[in-house]
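Notes to self, Aspartate aminotransferase family protein:
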Amino acid sequence: MALDRKAPNDLNAFWMPFTANRQFKKNPRMFVAAKDMHYTTSDGRQVLDGTAGLWCCNAGHCRPKITEAIQKQAAELDYAPAFQMGHPVAFELANRIIDIAPKGIEHVFYTNSGSESVETALKLAIAYHRAKGQASRTRLIGRERGYHGVNFGGISVGGIVNNRRHFGSLLSGVDHLPHTHLPDQNRWSKGQPEHGANLADDLERLVALHGAETIAAVIVEPVAGSTGVILPPKGYLERLRAITKKHGILLIFDEVITGFGRLGAPFAAQYFDVLPDMMTTAKGLTNGVIPMGAVLTTADVHDAFMDGPEHMIELFHGYTYSGNPIASAAGIATLETYREEGLFERAAEIAPYWQEALHSLRDSRHVIDVRNMGLIGAVELDPIAGEPTKRAFSAFLAAYDKNILIRTTGDIIAMSPPLMISRAQIDTLIGTLADVLAKLE
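result:
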């Protein structure tokens, strides 16, 4: 049976995630190919990728080294179990991740996605305290407007209302810090906002309310992406780290978006010079090509489990595809591509140009805020009264028709282009978006 790669004959069977299915299937938008900075649509147009797919194709699309590594590995060793068995590629990838990780991060536990990385980190946090003789530490602290994937643990510590409201009572023993979006004080921020470090002090309130002896971990995104690019105020992450250390609480950085060069450093922990106890990763780990995630931990977290008889399993957790050979090969080739092309350094070098281009939209129609950090940017729009999200979604559709891909969340346009983007492509992306905004109702 031949597969028509441009025009599927029936759209009904695929229930699409995070999509207005009925609207899409009346007028589908189909990508059929990709190369470097562009997608090709089913009608032959070249669309400039302003979002690195879904924050994940940091090295661009269909990069030769990654493609070749996948092909070679699939022909050599397609699958090997990670339970009580191993294969060299997974160990090599782990070593290379640790080589670029912050000093103090020493171990890698593989998952298949950011959502699973979060679930793993939350379980590790609770199990860690139990292993240390502090079994009362089971409470998890997230943050309002946080996004930590879509599994039950992730949406419990997450703080995006629509991701939570339809799924019952979620996990018990979860609380939330306030988010750091202060538009009245920090509007038009270039990089870290000036105001809001004191919001980290709300953790002291939660400690007083629940007792430090009940709290296992705090999880935050260093830069909150999926909720519309919310930036950490100056001093905020440092203060959060100090409070968690003071009370023996683990700090987890969700680096699924910020990891692998998005801020111009390998990880946000290095960019902000704040070392957490664990980091959740995915997306840029394999350039989005094959599902893979990983939790990175300190030796202290790992070593807490290395007790008891050597023949006994230390941690009763893992996935069928943890350290999958093909995904591991893709990860190694991705890291090599980042290094050989200097993409992390390139992101840091081009970030000021990106910043100024973004902020040129400040006076555009309906724009009420612009903010940025690294190669991330947000343009917030004044919502239509009584019709939230409609204005930004209209901008998304108009942008696609004009051959640029943007993302929207609420009435916020979010952009995170591949790290290989050129100045001319930034001009095209932002210039086209300016045209879209000028005509937006």
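- The mean pLDDT is 96.
- The domain at 21-59+345-438 is CATH 3.90.1150.10 (Aspartate Aminotransferase, domain 1).
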